[in-house]
Design a protein that fits this description.
There is one protein chain. By secondary structure, this protein is mainly alpha-helical. The protein has two domains: 1-48, Arc Repressor Mutant, subunit A (Orthogonal Bundle), CATH 1.10.10; 51-196, Tetracycline Repressor, domain 2, CATH 1.10.357.10. The protein contains eleven helices and no strands.
Length: 200
């Protein structure tokens, strides 16, 4: 990591801390510079405005999603096995405190910035295209009965997020235990396949 990259990371981490402590509106670039232990000029060299700094935080969250949601389709492996792999990728991401903190911060503050909220949600949907592509491949392979890969993808992910994302974001609930997560994944896969898998 170069010195410039280290400075940028310091600034983003400082901004996250300040936004969490004081909120977006009450946080100043001066305060971010103090917390990051860099000059105000250095902050502005990396981020020309507070909104640009917030977008930098959003990008950091989206990078975590992108890294966690890559999923290739295999016609050789069972659907249940592949769906389990997909679910485990998602749950590992949702169990990451850094990701949950970022997601909670971004969602809470983006509500006050409708345009940024829309852009963020659209970008998140784009990053989940690799998951949509998995479902599209399974549909083309005749192993899932549907004409809408985006719909079936969102339905499967929503079953997971209903227990292992939104309760943690909104109510700050702890993640379910490993046994509870395993039970959730098993039941989600069973329900999904009972509806979408072609009957013999």
């Amino acid at each position: 990591m170069t010195l410039s990259q280290k400075k940028r990371a310091q600034i983003i981490n400082a901004a996250i801390a300040e936004f969490k402590a004081s909120g977006y509106a009450a946080t100043s670039m001066d305060r971010v510079a103090q917390t990051a232990q860099v000059s105000k000029r250095t902050v502005y060299n990396h981020f020309p405005s507070k909104q640009a700094l917030f977008i930098g935080i959003v990008s950091m969250m989206l990078d975590l999603i992108s890294a966690a949601t890559k999923m290739g389709y295999s016609s050789q492996l069972s659907l249940a096995e592949q769906l389990q792999q997909l679910a485990q990728k998602e749950l590992r991401l949702f169990a990451d405190p850094e990701f949950i903190d970022l997601a909670r911060l971004v969602i809470a503050e983006a509500i006050h910035m409708p345009e940024q909220m829309v852009a963020t949600m659209q970008h998140m949907a784009t990053l989940e295209n690799s998951i949509n592509y998995w479902f599209e491949c399974a549909i083309k392979d005749g192993r899932i009965q549907s004409e809408n890969p985006s719909l079936v993808s969102s339905q499967f992910l929503s079953m997971l997020k209903g227990r292992c994302f939104w309760p943690q974001i909104i109510n700050r609930m702890p993640m379910p235990s490993a046994d509870e997560q395993a039970e959730l994944v098993e039941s989600c896969i069973a329900m999904f396949l009972s509806y979408y898998q072609p009957k013999p």
